[in-house]
Amino acid sequence: MSDQHPELLRVEALRKEFPRHASLAAKLTGATHEPLVAVRDVSLGVAPGETLAIVGESGSGKSTLGRMILGLMPPTSGTITFDGRDITALPPAGRRALTRDLQVIFQDPYSSLNPRQRIEDIIREPLDIHRIGTLDQRRERVRELMDQTALPDRYRRCYPHELSGGLRQRVGIATALAVHPKVIVADEPVSALDVSVQAQILDLLAEVQRQTSVAMVFISHDLGVVQQISDRVAVMCQGEIIELGPIEDVYTHPQHPYTRALLSAIPPADPTQPYQPIAIGDPVPLSDADPGCRFRGRCWLAEEVCAQQPPALSPRPSGDLARCHITERAPDTWFEADQAITIGGR
Fold this sequence. Notes:
By secondary structure, the protein is α/β, with parallel strands linked by helices. The protein has helices at residues 24-29, 62-70, 92-98, 119-129, 135-148, 165-177, 195-212, 223-226, 247-252, 257-264, 304-308, 325-329; strands spanning 9-18, 36-46, 51-55, 77-82, 85-86, 102-105, 183-187, 215-220, 232-237, 240-246, 314-315, 321-322. GO terms for molecular function: ATP binding; ATP hydrolysis activity.
């Protein structure tokens, strides 16, 4: 989709650093501490009607990236452009106005809803804030949204605690859609739900997107989930994008060992197929000044060059971008070296 339409949302060289709290001994000796770099010079974009998934394990920086896009956290450096306008450092009034075009679906469908409000009031609140239509028109819009998200009318006067997790997440989706946004950032929107309910919510999001052409940034730790809904996927590891491309290309021909490890964790649909997840261990902390690949401490393919030079995010014949010295040298054959490893039963 991004080839057919100009990008609606673009982040360029986005970076987020957090200061580290020095220990008492460090304060006494005057030792300095490097900041924690949560997002490291990330660049990506999303087009109208497209779903871009941002995937990575806990601590990879994906949710921090989402919060910066939403204006919930200021970036240390870099730019965020929305609809051709730089929104990196908007004043509060400008950011409030932007919420009409840029909405969010949160991970927890209970804590993100006001427990003291009835469902109809929660869904109507964005319309009230932006003063859209008359009161009767807002009420009619709430009925339309409940119908669109398959929320039975009988729940209109209920409170969040009276609804199941799946129904509460439908309320969150209806609320995000209320003001006809251009982009929705969905931060782990199904991770707190049962597998069967996850499928229902993913189907709902896909149907909503077909109806409205809203662009979506879908943040998740689960490559199996994003496969069902995404057009493209950006894989993050230790604050960097290490692979970016069309969902079919990334799943069929992964160009980074980390992506391959994540894919190997997807159980095969056929239980008779071998299930052999790749064990890569926990992230290995590296200094920000370290010149090498940030994944090399967990990579079974690592060579000397991986410790000496930072790999660039370079194009591959499959159509995606990847940050790896080894696969750049042999993009079509590197994964054939170990036939014992399978990816999701493929």
